[in-house]
Model the fold of this input.
Amino acid sequence: MILPHYIAERKIQEALRRGELDNLPGKGRPLQLEDDSQVPEELRLAYKILKNADCLPPELELKKDIVRLEEMLRGIEDVEEKYRQMKRLNFMIMKLNMMRKVSPQFEEDQVYFEKVVDRLGTRKKER
Done:
């Protein structure tokens, strides 16, 4: 065992024997560890500061906007307006995929607005 590890372990064992670690806050509860393994090492400190200030990283902010727009799309009746918003949604999804720089198999799927508009257009004609 390396000397600093040995000294630290010995001090912990002494504190345990004296009972100094018996009444620590959170005893018996699981630790809340932050998983920042997906964040590049050089950005981790900045992301932690932003998180503590209740700010989201740009990717998460964009993802939040995408979810909001998807919810809004469900309530739009006008085909032309829905088409415009779906184009906007596809752009936001493309931007998010570019920000992530991941394998294409993990990218968000874009909305196939042409098919949706065709289907909605035919339904309106049938009415």
In short: The mean pLDDT is 81. Residues 79-100 form the longest helix (22 residues).
